[in-house]
Amino acid sequence: MNDFDFYVPTAIRFGKGKIACLPSELARYGRNVLLVYGGGSIKRTGLYDRVMELLSDFKVTELSGIEPNPKLSSVEQGAKLCKTEHTDVILAVGGGSTIDASKHIAAAACYDGDPWDLVLDRSKVSKALPIITVLTICATGSEMNSGAVISNEKTLEKLEINTPLLYPRLSICDPTYLYTLPPKQTAAGAVDILSHVMEQYFQPNDEAYITDELSEAVMRTVVKYAPIAMSEPENYEARSNLMWASTLALNHLLTVGKGGAWSVHPIEHVVSAYYDITHGVGLAILTPAWMEYVLRDDTTARFARFARKVWDVDESDDRTAAKEGINKVRAFNRSLGMPSSLTEAGIENADIEKMAAEAIRTSGLSERSYVKLSAVDVEKIFARVF
Amino acid sequence: MNDFDFYVPTAIRFGKGKIACLPSELARYGRNVLLVYGGGSIKRTGLYDRVMELLSDFKVTELSGIEPNPKLSSVEQGAKLCKTEHTDVILAVGGGSTIDASKHIAAAACYDGDPWDLVLDRSKVSKALPIITVLTICATGSEMNSGAVISNEKTLEKLEINTPLLYPRLSICDPTYLYTLPPKQTAAGAVDILSHVMEQYFQPNDEAYITDELSEAVMRTVVKYAPIAMSEPENYEARSNLMWASTLALNHLLTVGKGGAWSVHPIEHVVSAYYDITHGVGLAILTPAWMEYVLRDDTTARFARFARKVWDVDESDDRTAAKEGINKVRAFNRSLGMPSSLTEAGIENADIEKMAAEAIRTSGLSERSYVKLSAVDVEKIFARVF
In Å, how far is A279's CA from the nearest CA of chain B? Predict the structure, then answer.
């Protein structure tokens, strides 16, 4: 088991109606609130009205229109607002994109230079505004971690900013907010959750038995409840288990004692930076392709374990079990309505060579991932999904 | 899934040599340290010298001799020292008893009345000194939670004080410190960890699937590694997995979405308050007796699941599987060298009636436990272990 430090100081309020605590929690930090949200779905569902009602005693500045794969330009706009409006606390109402943008804004609001500096050099983040989140999509786990992925539309880079200063102080997780999610978002969220766990599960260290066991527990939860949430959107048991699975998948718990770089996310990040496809869709397509590419003698045991423990594969031969597990992943994604190739997702004439080089440049793929990959390897993985 | 709030702000530094961070971490709070430890095993192992070397720039006041089932008198003594020595921070070096005593001292040091008041009425805890721990026994999980169990030797009560103010700020978990544990303590620790998980696992709510899955993962970890740690005391993989299992078993993660009162601990607490036996020994004896007593039609499915998922019982009939699971618990405890009855543990002529009444009075057994128990039920459970 690798050494680790663990410190996750975000408070979670989980359950129906937990949003009622907002006024008292926001008031800890001040009266000037920057309300950050996305494309307006919270207006359709009534959540916006509920929030504004709770915030009647606060001065609220709004930053709406945060897009999936949130953009640097939104961050720049938000940071400017925080400075001119003397914001005390940021309230992010939405999913991972809104929360990620809010984290970067929180840091940029306390920084005088170009916000992108903070992504390129984390040591420049010395302060950040406090953040409270109200989660409306479960996928990224951003509500209980200190990372944020931001796309720079000028440079076509999609990179992460991550420092302990960016932990939300409080996240309100009400599973009933997921009832109105479009099926596509439920599906993409489930794929994203599973992928987060798999990224941490497929890593060089094999001695963190407890972490592997916990990871399998979370993956089984997603495999069990994602189809239920798709067919019964208002099934509280399914939504609540998925929502908490999503948080645990990326709140540091499942990486403890492991270590190593992620494999599929860095490849997908390049695709969604270039083509702005839904992150979960990109992951659904790339994950089985990556698995098949890295399945070989020295990875077979791990893939066989994965197949048996997560996908209930009952097959005594390891290699056969491993392959069957990968098939199960692909079938699961398809059952959620995911496309099976990037072509099917609408991407054509991609510059595979350039994207592969970019994935290598911006990640630990070639040095610290489960199976170390070169740019040529990544090109071959891309070739499988076009 | 029940509603829940989750907030666990303790930082963990896990791994060999992590103690080196002590000076900088203590210095955040001041220079006056109360060093709390137990019976002197840390002097035999060299850990005391290492700590004192690291603390050469601090003013250190010592409170040694904290006993298993820590006593109110130790707390009184510690609180008095904190007041006279103007302690800034408490450093607990030891296991659950030392940490629990330190927590109560931390609160009592900031309170003018009788320290026992704080146990009887948690609302009286309005402030506490910061606590840093160095863990030398893995069992209680006290290093990452806000509870402490204290025995009042005058009233023969063993009760818990629990408030968020008592979370240690930092806990240093170095698995190599467990290498020198006597086998009896390794065994009692393993039983205690398992029991903590079972207390949370056997509860009224069945919809927290993810929490049940995580609980099973932690239990399998203990079942796998406890025997290895017994036979190979310096097996790092075993010690590290057990150490983290112990922390996760009682850091709130495994109670999320469940709720309800514990079943076996309240019964055991009375026994160890009256007879001062090792907590883990009491649990090892009482747990299978409790299980057999509450196994009935409406609990069979859960016990069968427990048997299959934790103990690998391969038996299709639920009732048979359930019984086999309980047998496995008993066999596991015996394999760790635990006695199988309180008589065997040296307790004779116990006043069963009085102890049962006390267990009911001081717990949620009769109202909120998995199977609600009356005093008569508890007497019958006692009757099985004498």
Answer: 25
With beta carbons less than 8 A apart as the criterion, state whether A113 and A33 touch: no
Q: Which of B7, B12, B217 sits opposite A6 (nearest CB)?
A: B12
C-beta separation of B192 from B137 below 8 A: no
Indicate the residue of B236, B244, B257 with minimum beta-carbon distance to A210: B244
pLDDT on residue A195: 98
3-state secondary structure of A66: coil
Cβ distance of B210 and A245 shorter than 8 Å: yes
Please tell me the distance in Å from B218's CA to the nearest CA on chain A: 6
Do residues A175 and A245 touch, judged by C-beta distance below 8 A?
Answer: no
Tens digits of residue pLDDT in A230-252? 999 999 999 999 999 999 999 99
According to DSSP, the residues that pair with A148 across neighbouring strands are A161
Low-confidence ranges of chain B (pLDDT < 50): none
By CB atoms closer than 10 A (0-12, 13-18, 19+), residue A358 is: buried
Contact A3 B16 (CB under 8 A): yes
Structure tokens at A367: 């040095």
Instruction: Answer whether B63's CB lies under 8 Å from B78's CB.
Output: yes
CB–CB of A240 and B218 under 8 A? no
Query: What ipTM was assigned to the predicted interfaces of this complex?
Result: 0.96
Q: Which residues of chain A carry a pLDDT beneath 50?
A: none
Alpha helices in A86-141 (DSSP H): 96-108, 115-120
Would you state the pLDDT for residue B259? Answer: 85
Look at residues A348, A338, A196, A328 and name the one whose alpha carbon lies nearest to residue A271. A348
- From B18's Cα to the closest Cα of chain A, the distance in A is 9
Query: Do residues B304 and B321 touch, judged by C-beta distance below 8 A?
Result: yes
Q: Does B244 touch chain A (CB under 8 A)?
A: yes
- B173: which DSSP letter? E
Helix, coil or strand: residue B213: helix
Chain A contact for B223, CB < 8 A? no
Quick: pLDDT tens for A75-102: 999 999 999 999 999 999 999 999 999 9
DSSP assignment string, B78-124: HHHHHHHHT-SEEEEEESHHHHHHHHHHHHHTT-SS-HHHHHH-GGG
DSSP H/E element including A150: strand A147-152
Which among A7, A36, A143 is positioned nearest to A98, based on CA atoms?
Answer: A36
| Model pLDDT, residue A289 | 98
Domains of chain B as residue ranges with CATH: 11-177 (3.40.50.1970), 181-384 (1.20.1090.10)
